[in-house]
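Whiteboard transcription, Tuesday session. T.W. wrote the structure tokens on the left side:
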């Protein structure tokens, strides 16, 4: 594989990650932590009494807007598609009255320095994820900016990242003129000898002979479907 091809595959993997249900759920979990922390802080009646105008502002618009965002686990994975229909970035934003409202210093009245730092770090992570989703959905990454971790935040590359790309993406990225191999459901014969993998299980790459029945692996992922692996080399000892 050439360096150019690998770069294109890595770009495809990053776009797949930023547009995924799992990545959006990570944003929702961070937001829920942020909202829960603010509500807990402002539940103190004495604090409400000392800062009545700020407390009224927290009730509306801040909590009103923050509570509009979906809770983690409420958007089904099966119907997920990154886009405006699922509240991607115009509602997941930090502009005033635009969803995940981040109003500023008045939210943090009498917070400890440590908690203020923690919440600011949460906001920083949410802003990066929100921007990664927005730019990916709008197909607006410029050049190699998607590799700039100062923009995207740290990226945890799994060792088998290539195996997470669909076969048709691999074929397109590599400029292959051959027809992509179809995914094969468990219980069906292997259509072509070679190395296959399934997203239903990590590190599942396995060599099947043509005609060999592809097994089901079970688990919480759902039905087992085997995909042609972009890495057809034998494991190194």
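and on the right, the sequence the group agreed on:
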């Amino acid at each position: 594989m050439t360096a150019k091809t690998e770069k294109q595959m890595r770009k495809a993997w990053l776009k797949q990650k930023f547009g995924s249900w799992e990545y959006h759920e990570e944003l929702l979990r961070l937001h829920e932590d942020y909202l829960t922390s603010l509500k807990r802080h402002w539940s103190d009646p004495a604090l409400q009494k000392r800062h009545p105008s700020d407390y009224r502002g927290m009730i509306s618009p801040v909590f009103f807007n923050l509570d509009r965002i979906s809770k983690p686990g409420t958007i089904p994975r099966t119907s997920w598609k990154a886009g405006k229909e699922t509240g991607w970035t115009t509602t997941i934003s930090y502009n005033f009255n635009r969803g995940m409202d981040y109003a500023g210093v008045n939210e943090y009245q009498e917070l400890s320095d440590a908690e203020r730092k923690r919440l600011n770090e949460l906001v920083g992570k949410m802003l990066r994820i929100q921007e990664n989703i927005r730019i990916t959905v709008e197909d607006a990454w410029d050049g190699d900016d998607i590799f700039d971790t100062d923009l995207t935040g740290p990226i945890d590359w799994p060792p088998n990242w290539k195996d997470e790309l669909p076969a048709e993406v691999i074929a397109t990225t590599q400029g292959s003129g051959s027809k992509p191999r179809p995914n094969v459901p468990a219980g069906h014969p292997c259509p072509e000898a070679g190395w296959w993998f399934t997203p239903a299980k990590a590190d599942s790459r396995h060599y099947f002979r043509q005609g060999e029945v592809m097994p089901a692996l079970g688990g919480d992922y759902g039905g087992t479907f085997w995909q042609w692996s972009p890495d057809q080399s034998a494991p190194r000892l």
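Someone added at the bottom: Residues 113-137 form the longest helix (25 residues).
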